[in-house]
Amino acid sequence: MAIASVDRLFIRELGLQDYRSTFESMRSFTASRNESTPDEIWFLQHQPVYTRGVSCRDRPWGDGSNVLLVDSDRGGQITYHGPGQLIGYLMLDLRRRRLGIRQLVSHIESVIVEVLSEYAVAGSTHPGAPGVYINGAKIAALGLRIRNGCTYHGISLNVDMDLAPFDFIDPCGYESLPVTQLRDLGVSSGISDLETALAKRFQKTLGYSSLSRIPCERSSVSQY
Asked: What are the pLDDT tens digits along the chain (224 aa)?
């Protein structure tokens, strides 16, 4: 893509994806990008999987031991992904956006809080505990990796999913941390509507000139 495209944010809507193949595609995309590579957000859902950050050695217990466990290279501890949870992987060049990691984390949390407010849900943040919370229960988690000034990994937002697998871990490393989701808060909007709302907020908050969706037939992580 031409250098003129680098101030445009590209969106891929990938549907249900295997975690391990997506993980490798994120790494490949980041390793191969250069100063003319536009930034992207990959929206998707994952098949059931527990993932651990680089410093985590926790394991799920009970029925959670029957679910796939994958070691990732993101920050953070252990969490669960499954259908009905919206994932947003942020493939961003921080140097080009003139952002530090702490500023980016603050922007990400603000974007989620603002989107939740569109659905009359009051989200909040906790100092030292990245993510977004509703009355103390976690509804959105985040974990990032930076390589050569570029990010990958990103956010997860609980929409309409089976929350039971969270019972077999200490979510994000916090013992007995409650989790919640939009369905249980009376929000019936689907994944697609939330993808659109998040994309628009990220474009505005991070200062991109425009937003473009990559056609579905090209939205495959296998190309990287």
From this structure: 444 578 999 999 999 999 999 999 999 999 999 999 999 999 999 999 999 999 899 999 999 999 999 999 999 999 999 999 999 999 999 999 999 999 999 999 999 999 999 999 999 999 888 999 999 999 999 999 999 999 999 999 999 999 999 999 999 888 889 999 999 999 999 999 999 999 999 999 999 999 999 986 545 565 55
Task: Report the alpha-carbon distance of residue 68 to residue 66 in Å, rounded.
Answer: 7
How many domains, in total, are found in the chain? 1
Report the run of H or E that residue 133 belongs to, with start and end: strand 129-134
Would strands 49-52 and 69-71 be described as parallel, antiparallel, or unpaired? parallel
Which two tokens mark 194? 């939330």
Please name the helix (run of DSSP H) or strand (run of DSSP E) that holds residue 148, with its range, or none: none
CATH number at residue 192: 3.30.930.10
State the pTM of this model: 0.94
Catalytic residue IDs: 172
